[in-house]
Amino acid sequence: MSLPDKKGYFGEFGGQYVPETLMAVLEELEKVFRGARKDKSFQRELTYYLCEYAGRPTSLYYAKRLSEHLKTLKVYLKREDLLHTGAHKINNTLAQVLLAKRMKKTRIIAETGAGQHGVATATAAALMGLHCEVYMGTEDISRQALNVQRMKLLGAKVNSVTSGSRTLKDAMNEAIRDWVTNVHNTFYIIGSVAGPHPYPFMVREFQAIIGREARRQFLRKETCLPDYLVACVGGGSNAMGLFHAFFNDKRTKMIGVEAAGLGLASTRHAATLLKGEIGVLHGSKSNLLETKDGQIKVAHSIAAGLDYPGVGPEHAYYQKIGRARYVAVTDQEAMSGLKLLAQTEGIIPALETAHAISFLKRLASQATRNSSVVVCLSGRGDKDMGTIHESH
Ligand SMILES: *Cc1c(COP(=O)(O)O)cnc(C)c1O
């Protein structure tokens, strides 16, 4: 059975919880997306930009010194950090911008928390010559000044959001409000496998190239499939991108690493799958962090990209059916993971990715000798140098 179902559900998760006026738009979007998937000229154009502009295929790199350090694990890194703009997000924004063009939309909107999705969107919009506006909470605007500057340089307009906690979830509400008003000419780019159907499905399909390449590359190098896949989970797009092609490979175990922030026992974390409850956020039903009276909590992680109180519905489903296991890593553990990769391999990963790296130490102590693992190296760490410096 291929999921999501017709209504956009992965088991009990997903769906379309949006104002009535958007239902027809989502339906049209799904139709255009399904058409584009089958259209050779769309696929050719997307492949062209992914290869010539963004830098695909990315390498599957055998991390020899890291593997020796961990002893039991043979570690391969899927190098999404080598893509243009430094992370996997460009896979999705390039594809959605091409869809926008196909739908004859002239205006792109997005919301962003850390600014990474905003930058990836502004980049793709500039490339296609489309007008771009990005919603961002004022709290995030001051925390992420460098990314705000990047977006502006790329020609995007950054709209500051002053409502609520002035962070990502408030920016999401504003973006949806804008979309409702301007659907005739506006395309809304969502940055992870979240949001109302068809977004979780669409973004998964656009990121699934990570796992398709990794599976092929691993088979070529090792003539078997990996024992484990490991990726960090914010909204869940790099993890789902890696996992999806391996869904039917039952012997390959999947592990998603959430942010435990200051600890799972504290209130300051972003471990939505481990600590959340089922509810509706951002137009779909999934796990989320909320208070007893149903208010969305402010998530916390040292990694701005993991700092999201929701998670894509397909991950909630994978957890429910036991296809993937989810774990959490604290801010402090992530910092030590970052240093480990920097000093064994000469690669400074993004703080998000550092969560996945840090978990390898735990996995190595449980794994039998000669186990193999593919880690999604979702992004590079240059953007985090300020944070890394402070926490020294
Ligand atoms: C945004 C981001 C993430 C988290 O987003 P997902 O949708 O969970 O992949 C992880 N790593 C990097 C480098 C990011 O920029």
Reading the helices and strands in chain order gives EEHHEHEHEHEHHEHEHHEHEHEEHEHHEH
Low-pLDDT parts are: none
Helical residues, percent:
40-55%
The portion of residues forming beta strands comes to 15-25%
Look at the structure and give the mean pLDDT.
Answer: 95
- Count up the helices: 16
Bound molecules: pyridoxal-5'-phosphate
Rg, alpha carbons? 19 Å
Strand count, sense and barrel status of the largest sheet are: 6 strands, mixed
Q: Provide the spatial order of strands within the biggest beta sheet.
A: 3-4-14-9-10-13
Shape: globular
Spatial separation of the terminal alpha carbons? 49 Å
Structural class: alpha/beta
Q: Tell me how many strands there are.
A: 14
Helices and strands in order:
Layout: E1 9-10, E2 13-14, H1 20-38, H2 40-54, E3 60-62, H3 64-70, E4 73-78, H4 89-102, E5 107-111, H5 116-128, E6 131-137, H6 138-143, H7 145-153, E7 157-161, H8 168-182, E8 186-188, H9 199-207, H10 209-222, E9 228-232, H11 237-243, E10 253-261, H12 272-275, E11 277-281, E12 284-288, H13 313-321, E13 324-330, H14 331-345, H15 351-366, E14 371-376, H16 385-390
Parallel strand pairs: 4-14, 5-6, 5-8, 6-7, 9-10, 9-14, 10-13
Antiparallel strand pairs: 1-2, 3-4, 11-12
Helix pairs in contact: 2-4, 3-14, 4-5, 5-7, 9-11, 10-11, 14-15
Bound molecules: pyridoxal-5'-phosphate.
